[in-house]
């Protein structure tokens, strides 16, 4: 049965917490520093909310996803934009020539892939010799981690580092959104969330999670069709060790070079 990824994908018009919007912005603000005057491929681009942002500095941006319904959003948003191209393709079989991109991005999607090692190999193939692969993923070692429906495998920092090192000689691991231990409210929310995860009470869809977030985080923000500077603050990810568990961060970033 074909999966409907639209129910688990952040799309324009959905509502989320301020932290959710900040995470979304952080991903592309981090990537932007690698994209100036470069040819960029975002695999599993979803609603394409970062494509226009990256295209402001990149030479060319190609965004693709396996779900054609999800691609309706970026196709409509970026119609007629010469620097942005939208294509439907499988992350594990990108239809591009060898050494055709300077930057390859995969954000919050590697855990959906049946064969993540195949994606890593293909990313290496389509990257130029001085290219870079950027990956962002939820940290499964975070105590409040909640797996997404349709996911096949989540990686720890050590596991994904090891996978990337099979193809890339230089791999850097970074952490983002440090876990806050202080405050009675944080502790109560964390306890409730862990209980809900254990009992499988957290809604499976993005729409369903809006209710859960509204109760615990207050007023929600609408996710934009395209992110912009100035909407939320940016805190860059920080370098962390690949040799030890990284439970103190909610999000992991990886920068891999050949």
TrEMBL record:
InterPro entries attached to this UniProt entry: Methyltransf_11, SAM-dependent_MTases_sf
Species assigned in the record: marine sediment metagenome
GO molecular function, one term: S-adenosylmethionine-dependent methyltransferase activity
Name by which UniProt lists this protein: Methyltransferase type 11 domain-containing protein
Gene3D superfamilies recorded: Vaccinia Virus protein VP39 (3.40.50.150)
SUPFAM superfamilies assigned: S-adenosyl-L-methionine-dependent methyltransferases
Residues annotated as domain Methyltransferase type: 41-135
Pfam families: Methyltransf_11 (PF08241)
């Amino acid at each position: 049965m074909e999966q409907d990824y639209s129910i688990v994908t952040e799309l324009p018009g959905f509502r989320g917490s301020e932290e959710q919007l900040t995470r979304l912005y952080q991903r592309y603000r981090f990537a932007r520093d690698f994209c100036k005057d470069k040819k960029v491929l975002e695999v599993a681009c979803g609603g394409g909310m970062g494509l226009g942002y990256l295209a402001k500095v990149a030479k060319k941006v190609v965004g693709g996803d396996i779900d054609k319904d999800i691609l309706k959003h970026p196709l409509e948003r970026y119609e007629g934009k010469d620097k942005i191209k939208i294509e439907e393709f499988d992350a594990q079989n990108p239809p591009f020539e060898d050494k055709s991109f300077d930057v390859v991005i995969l954000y919050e999607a590697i855990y959906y892939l049946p064969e993540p090692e195949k994606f890593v190999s293909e990313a290496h193939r389509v990257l130029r010799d001085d290219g870079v692969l950027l990956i962002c993923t939820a940290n499964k070692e975070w105590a409040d981690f909640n797996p997404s429906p349709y996911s096949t495998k989540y990686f720890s920092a050590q596991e994904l580092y090891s996978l990337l090192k099979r193809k890339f000689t230089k791999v850097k691991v970074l952490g983002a959104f440090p876990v806050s231990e202080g405050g009675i409210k944080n502790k109560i929310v964390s306890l409730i969330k862990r209980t809900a995860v254990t009992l499988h009470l957290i809604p499976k869809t993005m729409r369903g999670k809006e209710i859960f977030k509204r109760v615990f985080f207050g007023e929600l923000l609408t996710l934009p069709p395209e992110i912009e500077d100035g909407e939320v603050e940016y805190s860059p990810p920080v370098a962390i060790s690949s040799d030890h568990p990284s439970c103190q961060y909610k999000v992991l970033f990886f920068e891999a070079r050949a």
